[in-house]
Specification:
The protein is α+β, with helices and mostly antiparallel strands. It has two domains: about 270 residues, Lipoprotein localisation LolA/LolB/LppX (outer membrane lipoprotein receptor (LolB), chain A), CATH 2.50.20.10; about 150 residues, Glutaredoxin, CATH 3.40.30. It has ten helices and 21 strands. The strands form three sheets. Strands 8-9-10-11-12-2-3-4-5-6-7-13 form a twelve-stranded mixed sheet, with helices on one face. The protein has a seven-stranded mixed sheet with strand order 15-14-18-17-16-20-21, with helices on one face. Strands 1-19 form a two-stranded antiparallel sheet. A hairpin with a 2-residue loop joins strand 4 and strand 5. Helix 7 crosses helix 10. It is globular, with a radius of gyration of 23 Å.
Amino acid sequence: MRILSSVIAIAAALACPCFAQDGAPKPAAPDAAPAPKAAEKPTAGWTDANRTPDAIKQAEAILDAAAKAYQAAPTLSESVSLKVDMAEGMSNEEKMETAYAKPGSLRFAMDQASIIATDGMVYFMPKEPKDKFVEQKIEGSVSKTLSAMLPGFAMPTAALAFREGTKTEGAVDALAGPFLQGAKLAGSRSANGIDEVLVANDTGEAVIMFDGKTHLQTGTKASVTPPGAPPGFVVTIKVAVENTVAPELARPITFEKGERTAVKSVSELAGAGGGSEPEMKVKVGDVAPTAKLTMLDGKEVDIAAMKGKVVVLDFWATWCGPCKKGLPLLEEFAVSMKGNDKVAVHPVNVWENVKGDDRTKAVSTFWADKKFTMTTLLDPESKFIEAYGFSGIPAFVIIGLDGKIAALHVGYDANLKDTLTKEVERALAKK
């Protein structure tokens, strides 16, 4: 199902699963198209003085001022322009409008979908299909509910996070969005009435701009190389923001379903009936490909011999950011399944840059450092993952008691434990 790929442009190129390093999809540019110019770095013109400990403290002060400004605004309207440029001249542009009223109340609209939060509920309405919408009760906060409802989704600005009371550390995650997972404050500067905050990690950097007087965000510039992307693949992101603060909104935030019918999840919008199923070599209901793989100690594990159990597989790599973010959640799930002899949980390492003993050592070091108790398997030639046809990781397979595929999932899922628990319970109940 591809609903989110068109609806959530922010995540389309940035929070996607990691590519296979030796076979990543690389779109071909037209023969007549000129080679794209090297993108200007977000920090062009910055100096070492903008990256000192004092500059980082100033960045914290800028974020604190922004938080106070957003929380003090009685209502706020944002017009956002987002442009994403990728290698080979690929580009995507989106315009979005967001309105914020009292806590827990917002209206977000773009061409492909709209989101409304009001009266303790969140509603997601895609352009297609026109006869359905997803509704969920707000649990904890609007942002947490949206993350559960739309995995990979991120608001294009930090307004929601600030208005929900997010502090500096959480604000960095909100500002960096899905394209710089785990980014840290790295510097700041102020010039021409604009305060700039730098966040960075090992995949790229982003500069977030704030108006020096209002302290509201005016834009973001970022440059990112997604983990596992082909050589030279750089994604640049430009966000422009116009803010309006007023005593009240010109149009109140309300929800009217019209002729739409409510469903419980995004997957039900397309009638998928459970889980996002990628287009690949196999599908739910097929006999699951199996293999004989080895553990880190060299002992062999035969997946086919596990028939009669529900088997959960997670294809991952040490260099894959979304994989590293999801593995602790898989560990939580694996721990919850201990003692259930009808369930087996096995991460499967694939697509590493090193081979042989060096690969085993790298994976062993990573595993020991994370203190995972679950057993990872090795797919050194990537033949097992090829049998499924996954082109990105993390990728999850749930094999039922009968040896057939019960579910397939691709990409990071913030609610992985709950997702797998439901899938496994469903598979166990199917005799």
